[in-house]
Amino acid sequence: MRDAAEPRTDAGDTLSICSLRVGAALFGIDTSQIREVLGTACPQRVPLAPEYIAGVLPYRGEVLTTVCFRALLGLECWAGGNCVLVFDDEENEERFGLMVDGVGGVIAVHRDALEANPGGLDARSQELFDGAYKLPSGLMVRLDPQRLRPSRLAESGLFGGVSGSHGRVKQERQGEQG
Amino acid sequence: MWAAKASGQQHVTLPAFGVGLKVVRQGSDKGEVEDLTKEFLAESQEGLERMELCLTELEKRPDDDELVAEIFRAVHTIKGTTGFLGLGRVERLAHAGESLLGALRDHKLAVSTELISGLLELLDGLRRILQTIEETGTDGQRASDNDSELIARLEELKAGGVAANGAPASQDQAPFDKFGAGPSTGPGQVAVRPPQSSVQDAEQPALPVVASSVPVAAASSAQDKTLRIDVDVLNRMMNLVGELVLTRNQILRSTPGAKNFPELARRLDSVTAELRENVMQARMQPVGYLFRKFPRLVRDLAATCGRQVRIEFEGQDTGLDKSLIEAVRDPLTHAVRNAVDHGIEPAQERVEAGKPAEGVVRMRAYHQSGSVVLEVTDDGAGISTERVLLKAMERGLVTPEHAGSMTQREALQLIFVSGFSTAKQVTSISGRGMGMDVVRTNVEKVGGSVELESQPGSGTTVRMRVPLTLAIIPALVLESGGQNFALPQNSLVELVYVPHHEAGQSVERMGTTDLYRLREGLLPLVWLDRLLALEQGAHDETHDFYIAVVESEGCRFGLVVDDLKAPEEIVVKPLSSQLREIGVFSGATVLGNGTLALILDVAAIGARAGVRPATEEIHVVGADRAQADTAQRELAQIEMQSAMVIYETGSRVSANENEAGRMAMPLSAVERIETVPLREIEYAGGRAVLQYRGELIPLEDDGNVLHALAEAETNLSPGDAAKDGRTATVLICLRPEAHGVRRVGMVVRRVLDVSAGRLLAADAAASGDQLAMVKDRVTTVHRGFAQMAGPQTAILKEVA
């Protein structure tokens, strides 16, 4: 994946990485993997969907399922604006969105600055992150969009599945109360 | 219609295509030759498909010269094209077939089962080679790919037939020798059998035919990705796109404040609508296209299973989106296989049961409120519920206690459980324990549903309902828990408003189910916000709510929502697979205000909330399956069709109180109830008309409501704010006429209620007016509409 995404524009060993902010942390995604940056968007919530699904957005005549990166990291929802990036889901030939707090600039990073995921990560982080770039200012965690595909997140089972059965139980319980 | 067009085209275009090819080959560009091969494959497969259909037809109508000519053309075209492409193998085989067909065309041969079987083998042979070409790019000149046996068989058939007819055989043999189709290609392999042996040889057509059914299913992959579009449709689309670009240019130059802006916006609207319609039309294909392969399939299956089966079609013109045609192809095949193999009994059993020896498999397609219904019906033995339950217990799918309490409908549903098969014997065609579950999975994948109906002794119906995924469907936008949802109108029966002062006492409980007394019946309620775990609105005694009475797959329940928004025509967009898994949404749509709304899947909501279908079983003893079918359908309609819209006609100022009385109209005749601003009602030749959805419909105003309203208006002072806000209530009705129905608008003072009603027998004293008993009061049914409720009343009496 990483090799395939080698940018044609960069002459040598540098990659252009788009930096993203989520909470206090800095993340980076290879620009060649980003289809589009939508800017602030307000996805329509989908009831009974897993927590990490922020909702759906209209996108070029399609309905774009959007993943909330904050929820994946286990952070509280944030009211201070957001930004949605659009990626291709290569396996299902669909597109999906990723909601982050904000998009920074494009940074040229040397290939050697990438360090693989260290061993001590918890299972969730291991699943989400794709190594980190050691920048002078600090670490920038690399993300691989294909790891953030909604279908893959569901398969991993680490982030809670479809909350359908949960909803049903709730309905019954409420029924008893009422 | 399509087939005819395609065949006409093919005949004209292919020779031209051949000539073009010669030119291209001089340039010898490999890519272009590949393109041409691809085109050839698609065209040939189409030709073969037509040939297949014609062959099975020919068996029924052996004297039809047109059919022979059509088959001849198909083979001839293939032969001609392959010559240019250097595909010698196909050419040789096609040539052998062509000369056999030539003899048939010249009446030197008579149509016989052996001949048809032989020709079908030729067809499969050609298909196999085409498949090889598609896979490998060549026609496979390897030693294993040898058609000499088949060619010899074709020759035999021809020689045998010609000899029997006493025609000079040697003369016809000449082209064969020249091409050296048989002996020279496979020297030593072909024993040219004497013509006499051909009769014995042809007596066992079953084996080769069965062997050939595999490539049938695998074929036509090249063709699936292409679509034939009428050039006219394409031209129209191009014109519209041109128009769209022009309008865009003008809009870009204009400003929202400009004088012509509203006009531009309107034009954009109409161009978009027209373009949309055109594209949809281009994507629609008649299901007849899909049905084409079934006569052959049924013929082969019947031969293998030793049954006598006839296949019938209905509604071939029903349009279905291209993508859906592909999606239902396999499920339909499964259903037809099951019908022939498990459904239809052997001839003897049938005769003993008092049925004609020949079984019938009927394939029907029709549109039903926004979805396409595909039915496969057989008049066979039906499915024995006992055997299903027995088998299910055997397989451990249900416990004996559970089985005992199951309704017939529930028991039949077990057939859809994976790994279930009731066939006594596992045959090579079906009964591998997969089938109905695959059918269901595939149909559900495209958002459809499958139902099964069966009457032991009289047959089985598999009914698949597929939505028009890309279609634009009418829906009602409603709100629950602060979120908008779209409810497809096709599942909506009626809407009930529960005002806040009634909210408390109107909902009653039975166990854990909330119920609402809707007229005489109890309606189970499903609270949408609770079901979807949304933030709940306050459903206490101070809050009003709406009940959308919905019906799906035999379940009727009330969906409780906070508010109703506008009805809208929505474009259905599929959801990603993750969100489809949730199960209660069938898609999403972008509303007029730009926001997204999820489309509710009523059947799934019912299932999730645990609403059971009302079990209505009809026992028809010894009746024909079709009859039972109709009876059931009609019984189901009674409730719907005899529902009446009650309204007040005539004006308030009328002196005669009776004239301003209640009137009723069968609900089935009423399309919509519209509130129309008075200024939108126009007059043409003294008659009131209304522009309604691009159509001009006449308004009927028996009670002079419009006049009264207009008078009331003139009484207002000119500057009165209420003047513009004057509205009239119009029932948009479908009036039955000699040639179908016509849309008319009925101006009424106000709509009172919708209620179940019953037509009374016409009475002379009532001056010819049809009367109905609605809500225990005699009410006049609007003239000319009584028959919309008519046929059902007869049944109602019978049932009573």
Oligomeric state of shown chains: heterodimer
Main sheet record of chain A: 6 strands, mixed
Provide the spatial order of strands within the biggest beta sheet of chain A. 8-1-2-11-10-9
Low-confidence stretches of chain B: 1-28, 163-220, 424-434, 615-641, 651-659, 790-800
Give the H and E element order of chain A.
Answer: EEEEEHEEEEHEEHH
What is the fold named in CATH at topology level of the largest domain in chain B? Four Helix Bundle (Hemerythrin (Met), subunit A)
Q: What's the N-to-C terminus distance of chain A? A: 54 Å
The total number of structural domains of chain B is 5
Helical content of chain B stands at 40-55%
State the shape of chain B. globular
Spans of chain A of 5+ residues with little confidence (pLDDT < 50)? 1-10, 163-178
| CATH-assigned homologous superfamily of chain A | CheA-289, Domain 4
In round numbers, the mean pLDDT of chain B is 71
From the helix content, strand content and strand pairing of chain B, which structural class follows?
alpha+beta
Helix content percent band of chain A:
10-25%
CATH topology of chain A: OB fold (Dihydrolipoamide Acetyltransferase, E2P)
The helix tally of chain B amounts to 28
Task: Supply the CATH superfamily name of the largest domain in chain B.
Answer: HPT domain
Number of helices of chain A: 4
CATH-scheme architecture of the largest domain in chain B: Up-down Bundle
- Arithmetic mean pLDDT of chain A: 78
